[in-house]
Amino acid sequence: STAARAQETLGIKPADLDWGNQRVRVIRKGTRAEQWLPASSEAFVWLRIYIADMGELFDTNAPLWRTLRRRDHGTGLHRQPLSYDALRKVLIRANDALETNWTMHDLRHTAALRMSRDEHLSDRDIQTILGHAHLSTTAETYLVEEQAEVMRRVKRFLDDRQTPTGPQTPVGAGYGS
To answer: In this structure, how many other beta carbons lie within 10 angstroms of the beta carbon of residue 112?
Structure first.
């Protein structure tokens, strides 16, 4: 729900979660600037479940997202930070099971498109959340409309214009075509 990039999401630490205001702090790609992003209440429910399932206390400055890996040291499974490559493998397994082809970037696009369809958010709002320096990047890359949706809106616009708004003044006599 934050529309954060994969690397930004993987860099989140428990200290980056603002439970009360339902925000997540990320380190932006490129500028390396910190930015707080609003997240959905549902995202925080899933975070709470994830943390509870981990069954261990987190170092608040260690990466939040972890994977369970077996090491050949005879000590069994160990948790370690989830890498981008490991995340891709998780998505590949999920895609194989679901017969889909999703990437983390597709989730970013989906969040941006959903935001763009909300009448309360401006393109500038979306640009800020996506962390783009230029509005043109946001508009050209993420706010591309599906053709069927554009056609539906234009048809509704034209249909609304066909409804008479009041009494029509007749054309005066002697008017030539």
So the answer is: 21
